[in-house]
Amino acid sequence: MDISAERILIDRVLSGDTEAFAPLVEEHQRMVYNLALRMLRNPQNAQDAAQDAFLRAFRSLSKFRGESSFSVWLYRLTSNICLDALRKSKRAGKVVSLYPDDDDEGRMLDLPDTAPLPEESAERQENIECVRAAMKSLSPEHREILMLREVDGLNYAEIAEQLNINEGTVKSRINRAKLALRRELEKSGNFSPFDSSNKTEGGMNT
């Protein structure tokens, strides 16, 4: 669906045609749910967050000014809902897992896709667990921006658009997040996945 078609639907909703919101939900529900699942790591929580996101989008649609695409506006709204859920979960003493057991495991380390030897497999799994544990200790903001960069593979401009911040803020926030992650890993006596001597702009080192 192009921007002009979305604008027509939005105008119809604002004019009182509530049924015109359904095509917007159908167009973006996969994106919203996948984002919530990546951030919350729980299908039921992700479903609840997605429903909340569309409900809030409907109620606050008059605030959408068209300065960005509807998908970007909805992405930010969903992200904020998930961040709030993570903060509440942390205050309640609950642990939110970064990865499900059978999904994105190992992607943060971007390890080679060749068949490893048994001892290499054990080391790989140990490294994954170290990073996973360290990520849990980061703030929701740091965890989110690392996931956008290292898991989703977005570049600085794309992250800036999604979070509605400038690229300079993206770079500094990523650097702070990586520093925080490095400190957590070193605090526990584990390796650091970042090496400034050979780190490229494309992603994390191993």
Q: Give the % helix.
A: 55-70%
CATH superfamily of the largest domain: Winged helix-like DNA-binding domain superfamily/Winged helix DNA-binding domain
The CATH class assignment of the largest domain is: Mainly Alpha
Largest sheet: none
Strand content: under 5%
* Structural class estimated from helices and strands: mainly alpha
Number of strands: 0
- Compute the average pLDDT: 75
Instruction: State the low-pLDDT regions, or none.
Output: 94-117, 194-206
Gyration radius, rounded: 19 Å
- Reading the helices and strands in chain order gives HHHHHHHH
By DSSP (H or I, 4+ residues per run), the number of helices equals: 8
Query: Per CATH, what is the topology of the largest domain?
Result: Arc Repressor Mutant, subunit A
Distance between the termini: 39 Å
Can you name the CATH architecture of the largest domain? Orthogonal Bundle
Basic shape = elongated
Tally the structural domains. 2
